[in-house]
Write a structure and sequence with these properties.
The complex is a heterotrimer of chains A (117), B (474) and C (658). With 474 residues, chain B is mainly α. Chain B has helices spanning 6-24, 27-31, 33-50, 67-86, 88-91, 104-120, 127-145, 151-182, 187-193, 198-214, 224-230, 233-258, 263-286, 291-310, 315-346, 357-360, 362-376, 382-396, 400-425, 440-458, 461-471; strands at residues 56-58, 63-65. In chain B, strand 1 (56-58) and strand 2 (63-65) form a beta hairpin. In chain C, a hairpin with a 2-residue loop joins strand 1 (73-84) and strand 2. Chain C is globular. The chains are: A mainly alpha (117), B mainly alpha (474), C mainly alpha (658).
Chain lengths: 117, 474, 658
């Protein structure tokens, strides 16, 4: 770890602190937000942390190449797609259940989820 | 003409064709879209078998064919053809539930795009392709699960989405660390440069966890039961077969291509996950009264068996996993097809819907029984041969405890598979149960799956070919 | 002349192929159109198979070059699965004295049972299905017997288990039959997992040995019986490092193999499925649960005897389990009231005898091996005859409860005579077959240095005579105790004929020099009657008969009527013969209430109950897994994170440890 963090002495340590903090915040939000949209936002934090990490590693660990940056771009695209899918589901859910509070969705018992009525 | 990617191209072309055609046809025409999609998939299957060589590269090595990848793609295309077949009655508005999957053309297109993503997974040679293929193989599933647009499906899809998105984030974060540790996105270079530091283990663990979600490894399996029940039945079958196959392919890529040199380090973890997964899956299945929940837990336990073969990253293990995967896809397809037919007849997912099936539909009951016996691993069905090979991998790796756990588990599994057999053959039939004939395409899928399950077990050619292929892999 | 000239030896695969073809033909083509033809085709194919197997036995013996031992032949084999070079699994037909013997037994009994079933099952719904599965069973059993390696044996082993499952549950409208079929399948499958693990364990251990041997191994594969029986291989296996708890792979593998064999052969405590399996049709009980399938475990141990002999203590376990089962089951048989259940426990006891005989080889003297196979041979005939006789009684009187039967001697003279013959045979009365084979087992125990086992075996012989005489007397003597019994009639000819054939075999099988043929090198070959064994066994059997006659002969109802009429005088007379009272008290109260009945209770409540308990525990654990399905999406996400943390932790731990 130590060897990695001091590699190049170019602030990699600080950058990794930023990305891991972002990622951890995202995970925390994902586990604690009750509103589905809040969960989606937290998820975006996670994905963006990863994207930043790719860019950082590209700049500091593999300079002169672009693969990490390309990956970061793709991650942004995937994140956008994820949001579209997620929002579509939330809209559907709201129209069916009049709520997007995930803690109110508890139908997974043996009897309660017996398929369509 | 890049023959190497012909199956993928055919699937994509069919998807686009269906999507565009959907705009221009009326309801009657729409009914023909499913046969068109099926023709496309079968065409891709034929192209794979007849034309595609089992090794080669495209796009500067970013897309590659390899001997086992060929088998993974075969399993995926067979699963796709089977699922399209058993979606036919719902598609044509027959039956009691799932009748007319709403917005039908898109359903097929999304399924086919999803399939294309899955087909790319075993061909990925760098992390970008790998990640994109995996996302394409996952994200459309969230939509397909909610396709019925009812409350149950929406709720199931939401849970699938939350856990799936988390898994995808973990995977991506892990890939980021791998990139940082090795300075490359090329999987082969990554393997060569991967250090043995704690950071590398963190990265590998994150990636394994992310893939474990897709393969329903315990404790990442919790989404499965509700999703299987809430999704339209063809989608549940799709999740239980193709999605699993893609996950196994992805896991094989990671464990063999990237982490193969460190097999000694990850084998204990994978062995423990395997034991945990099969045990949780089997125990969960024992108490279920809903057929789809039972099949969901059964699929969890089967994922555990598959994982056994990966222990030690040996060539024999790769052969066993690939062979069992093909058997599993065919056999599980048979079970889902039978469940789908019964579901269409009765509208019920309960075990009691199978009551007296042997008297109403003797052949259907026979097919279901053979499928269940295959999943339980009764010789001479393929399920037995495959399990035998998988367990033998564990014995070879001196994981005797794992062999014992797996063997006990396969006995427990017989117990709940027999519960369905009992309903079909032993319980008296309801007088009111309908005598609907089985539709043509699901019948074909059932017949092929049943015969396939037996042939795969009895004819030595299949395993022999897979073994020879594994010898030239990765 | 040599074996190359014998068509049937070269093409022995035809014998199992016939029932398989017939199974496919009957199941897929004939059954939907004509059930009558289904029975005919099935019976004809097995009869042909039986004729061929007699021809095979004849040629096999005829062409053997005399003074030497009979050869082991492998006339046909084909590759099935190839794990790697040296660990290839073939399908083939292994011909040696034991397998030829078993082929003859299986096809003969099967053919007779097919014939018997034509009448017995007449008019049943599912007549065609019955015959198709009976054919499948015959094929699988033959495949098991002819297996040249452990894997083919296991595959066929599971197939016989599956066919047994279908046949026990044949009357699927009877809940008891359904429960019994499931129990049989799950219990034997549980035992089979021992077999499976043993194959994997032994396979890899033997594969390592094969790699060391290099070219010396020839084309033999690691799981071939021929390879596992070689002395250099056994020595290498025995000297391997321990794998678990100080046991070598060889010892552990043998114990696990025995677990599989004990499940199929219903050794204590895995015997619980066999008595319940009597819910199946009686011909099935005769064929599968008496004559053939249940001896598969004995056959497996006999086949793998070199392995067992090389493994530390494995044969001692076999000896103990066999002896205990023989005694335990015989005691329970004395308390049962259902004709078929008595026979089932009797089967357990006789299987215990066979295992016991194999166990006596632990001193290095393989005489017990010959005795076990000899008893397997004779037992198949007289026990099948007993079951078919019981089937005829059931067919006529519609009940198997001995307290409802009685007096069937008059309406069913043929059945009575045949049943009597089989009773005498199983009790070991000269010159019937049981006498010879049982004496060989006891002689092996006595001369092999197991006097205690010999004593127990002697006691079991007495109990056997007692319980068989008991059911025989209650069934055929006295007056009918139920209306239906009084209207019984003799069985039709197609049922009596197979019984007659079996009776002939049960009578003369003792004179067939089976033990000389199957003798392993070093085994003592008996030429005459061993008086040190024959006298005590015969005396004990006669005592058993006498005890049963004292208690159950005569008219039970009439004696009570007489007692009432004579009143006080009778009672006074009775009291004078106080010996009588004591005798009754000792036998009925002491032995029944205090010994046999508690054993039966223990069997039902504890052994059977623990199996039930395992089921309950599994369900509870399953409910625990289900309880994790709270429906909370974020709880699921937390589970997923826990999983990832687990993986990371394990990787880290493994890296630190390695």
């Amino acid at each position: 770890m130590a060897e990695l963090l001091h590699a190049g002495g170019s602030g990699l340590h600080a950058w990794l602190l930023v990305t891991s903090a972002l990622f951890s915040l995202g995970i925390y939000g994902l586990l604690t937000r009750r509103n589905a949209v809040g969960i989606l936002l937290s998820l975006e934090l996670c994905l963006n942390a990863a994207a930043v990490q790719f860019a950082v590693f590209n700049a500091l660990r593999a300079p002169g190449r672009v693969d990490g940056a390309v990956m970061a771009l793709f991650v942004v695209a995937v994140a956008a797609a994820e949001v579209v899918v997620g929002m579509a589901l939330f809209v559907l859910l709201y129209s069916q259940r009049r709520t997007v509070d995930v803690t109110e969705l508890t139908g997974d018992g043996r009897d309660s989820a017996g398929g369509p009525p | 003409m890049p023959t190497l990617a012909l199956p993928e191209l055919l699937v994509l072309a069919t998807a686009l064709l269906v999507l565009v055609a959907d705009l221009f046809v009326d309801d009657t025409g729409r009914k023909r879209l499913l046969p068109i999609a099926l023709v496309g998939v079968v065409g891709a299957l034929v192209a794979l078998v007849a034309l595609v060589p089992d090794s080669g590269e495209l796009l500067g090595g970013r897309f590659a064919m390899d001997p086992l990848g060929w088998w993974f793609k075969l399993a995926l295309l067979v699963a796709a053809a089977g699922v399209l077949c058993l979606a036919q009655p719902a598609w044509q508005g027959q039956g009691t539930v799932d009748a007319t999957l709403p917005n039908r053309g898109e359903f097929l297109a999304i399924l086919l795009f999803n399939l294309a993503g899955m087909l790319l997974v075993p061909s990925a040679r760098d992390a970008v392709t790998f990640y994109l293929a995996l996302e394409t193989a996952t994200m459309p599933l969230f939509l397909l699960v909610a396709w019925r647009r009812d409350a149950v499906g929406a709720e199931a899809a939401l849970k699938y989405f939350v856990v799936g998105a988390l898994a995808s984030a973990l995977l991506l974060y892990g890939l980021g660390w791998l990139y940082g540790l090795t300075g490359t996105l090329d999987l082969a270079l990554m393997a060569a440069r991967l250090p043995t530091t704690p950071a590398a283990y963190l990265a590998m663990g994150l990636v394994l966890g992310g893939l474990g979600f897709k393969l329903t490894l315990a404790p990442l399996h919790t989404w499965a039961p509700q999703v299987y029940t809430g999704a339209p039945l063809p989608v549940a079958a799709w999740l239980g077969t193709a999605s699993k196959a893609a996950a196994v392919a992805a896991l094989a890529v990671v464990l063999y291509r990237v982490a193969g040199p460190h097999a000694a380090a990850w084998t204990p973890a994978v062995a423990l996950l395997a034991a945990l997964t099969m045990t949780v899956g089997n125990l969960g299945a024992v108490v279920q009264t809903n057929v789809l929940r039972l099949l969901a837990f059964s699929a969890v336990s089967q994922a555990g068996y598959l994982l056994v073969g990966l222990c030690g990253a040996t060539r024999d293990g790769a052969a066993a996993v690939t062979y069992y995967l093909v058997v599993y896809v065919v056999t599980n397809l048979g079970a889902f097809a039978a469940a789908a037919v019964v579901h269409h007849h009765t509208g019920s997912q309960e075990l009691s819907a199978f009551r007296g099936l042997s008297r109403r539909h003797p052949l259907l009951a026979l097919a279901m029984m053979l499928a269940l016996f295959g999943l339980a691993g009764i010789p001479p069905l393929g399920g037995f041969t495959g399990k035998f090979l998988l367990f033998s991998v564990a014995a070879q790796a001196e994981l005797h405890w794992l062999v014992a756990v797996a063997a006990v588990n396969s006995t427990v599994s017989l117990y709940y598979y027999l519960r369905i057999v009992r309903q079909m053959y032993i319980e008296p039939a309801d007088a009111a149960a309908p005598q609907t004939p089985t539709a043509f395409l699901p019948g074909v899928a059932l017949a092929v799956a049943t015969v396939g399950g037996v042939v795969l077990g009895v004819v030595p050619w299949f395993y022999e070919t897979v073994r020879v292929a594994a010898a030239r892999w990765p | 002349m040599s074996y190359a000239a014998s068509a049937i030896v070269q093409h022995a695969w035809v014998i199992p192929a016939l029932p398989l073809l017939s199974f496919l033909a009957v199941g897929l083509l004939v059954r939907p159109f004509s059930t009558r033809w289904a029975g005919g085709v099935a019976a004809a194919s097995v009869a042909l198979s039986a004729a061929l197997s007699w021809w095979l036995a004849f040629d096999y013996l005829q062409f053997a070059s005399p003074p030497g031992p009979l050869p082991t032949l492998l006339p046909w084999q084909t590759e099935w699965l190839r794990f790697q070079e040296g660990l290839r699994i073939d399908a083939g037909t292994l011909l040696d004295p034991a397998s030829v013997l078993l082929v003859v037994v299986v096809t003969t009994v099967s053919a007779l049972v097919h014939l018997y079933s034509l009448a017995y099952m007449d008019g049943e719904a599912g007549y065609g299905r019955y015959f198709a599965i009976l054919n499948l069973f015959t094929f699988s059993m033959l495949g098991l017997v002819l297996a040249p390696n452990l894997v083919q044996m296991f595959v066929c082993w599971e197939l016989v288990g599956a066919s047994s499952f279908f046949l026990i549950g044949f009357w699927f409208d009877r809940p008891a039959a359904v429960a019994a079929s499931k129990k049989a399948f799950v219990v034997t499958r549980f035992a089979d997992l021992g077999f499976l693990v043993a194959i994997l364990l032994l396979g890899h251990a033997a594969f390592d040995v094969r790699q060391q041997l290099g070219a010396a191994a020839g084309d033999l594969q690691a799981l071939d019986f021929a390879f596992l029986g070689r002395s250099d291989v056994l020595a290498a296996l025995a000297s391997q490092a321990p794998v678990l708890g100080g046991m070598t792979a060889l010892t552990l593998g043998c114990l696990l193999l025995f677990m599989g064999g004990a499940g199929k052969s219903a050794m204590f405590p895995l015997h619980i499925w066999l008595p319940d399996a009597m819910e199946g049709p009686t011909p099935v009980s005769a064929l599968i649960h008496a004559a053939t399938m249940v001896v598969a475990g004995v056959y497996l141990v006999a086949r793998a005897l070199p392995l067992f002999a090389a493994a530390d203590g494995a044969l001692t376990v076999v000896l103990l389990v066999g002896t205990f089962t023989a005694l335990f089951a015989a005691a329970i048989a004395c308390t049962q009231d259902d004709l078929k259940r008595v026979l089932a426990f009797s089967t357990l006891s006789q299987l215990g005898y066979m295992m016991l005989a194999l166990g006596t080889c632990d001193g290095g003297d393989p005489t017990g091996h010959s005795a076990a196979l000899f008893h397997l041979f004779t037992h198949a005939f007289f026990k099948a005859l007993l079951f078919l006789g019981a089937g005829a009684v059931l067919h006529a009187a519609h009940t198997g409860d001995v307290w409802h039967l009685g007096g069937l001697r008059k309406p069913m003279p043929l059945t009575h005579a045949l049943f009597l013959l089989a009773t005498l045979a199983i009790a070991g009365i000269w010159p019937l077959s049981g006498f010879f084979s049982k004496d060989e087992i006891l002689a092996a125990a006595l001369h092999g240095g197991h006097p205690l086992v010999f004593t127990v075996g002697l006691g079991v012989a007495g109990l056997t005579a007692f319980y068989m005489a008991r059911v025989y007397l209650l069934t055929f003597w006295g007056q009918p105790r139920r209306e239906a019994t009084a209207h019984a009639h003799e069985a039709p000819l197609t049922m009596v004929l197979p019984m007659g054939a079996l009776a002939v075999l049960a009578a003369v099988a003792g004179f067939v020099p089976v033990s000389r043929w199957v003798a392993l090198p070093g085994a003592a070959v008996h030429t005459g009657i061993d008086w040190a064994v024959a006298v005590p066994t015969t005396v004990v059997a006669l005592v058993g008969f006498a005890a049963a006659g004292w208690l159950y002969a005569g008219d039970l109802g009439r004696s009570e009527a007489a007692a009432a009429r004579l009143g006080r005088l009778y009672r006074a007379l009775r009291h004078k013969f106080w010996i009588d009272e004591v005798y009754l008290w000792v036998t009925r109260k002491l032995i029944f209430r205090l010994v046999a009945a508690p054993i039966a209770w223990f069997d039902r409540m504890v052994v059977d109950g623990s199996m039930h308990g395992v089921g309950v525990l599994t369900r509870l654990a399953g409910a625990g897994v289900q309880a994790a399905q709270t429906g909370q999406a974020q709880a699921y996400a937390a589970w997923a994170l826990t999983g990832v943390a687990l993986v990371v932790g394990l990787l880290w731990a493994a890296a630190r440890a390695g």
